[in-house]
Amino acid sequence: MNPQQNPDGSIDVELSEEIAEGVYANLAMIAHSNSEFILDFIRLMPGVPKAKVKARIILTPEHAKRLLEALRENISRFEEAHGGINEPNDSFRFPAGGFGGPVGQA
After folding, report:
1. Of 3, 15, 44, 65, which one has the fewest beta carbons inside 10 Å?
2. Is 4 part of any domain?
3. Where along the chain is composition biased (Gly residues) (predicted)?
4. CB-based contacts of 35-41 (< 8 A; 24+ apart in sequence)
5. Is 7 inside a domain boundary?
6. Domain ranges, residue 70
7. DSSP states along 44-102
8. 94 lies in a domain?
9. 19-48 residue pLDDT tens
10. Full-prediction pTM beyond 0.70?
11. Closest CA to 28 of 45, 44, 40
């Protein structure tokens, strides 16, 4: 038996406090090769012309497909409980140079 696997087949997953806080991203970019999918989660901030990648997740194609199906299932459940999510609008674009407004200084 795998030492991480319980007798009932479930797996214990540890979630540190730091990871549990999460990371906010308002843009995702996806790339792939023949052996992996790369998901970059990016945060665009108002008045800041340069966005930062806050997290990069690398998945096998099989895991990427599982993620896609899990997202579909969860979006469906969310919409059943809370109503439909608006479709992305093709005309929406993040403003070049950030969101405008004052730039903070330290």
Report:
1. 3
2. no
3. 97-106
4. 35/60, 35/61, 36/60, 36/61, 37/61, 37/63, 37/64
5. no
6. 23-82
7. --TT-SS-EEEEEEEE-HHHHHHHHHHHHHHHHHHHHHH-PPPPPPTT--PPTTSS-SP
8. no
9. 999 999 999 999 999 999 999 999 998 888
10. yes
11. 40
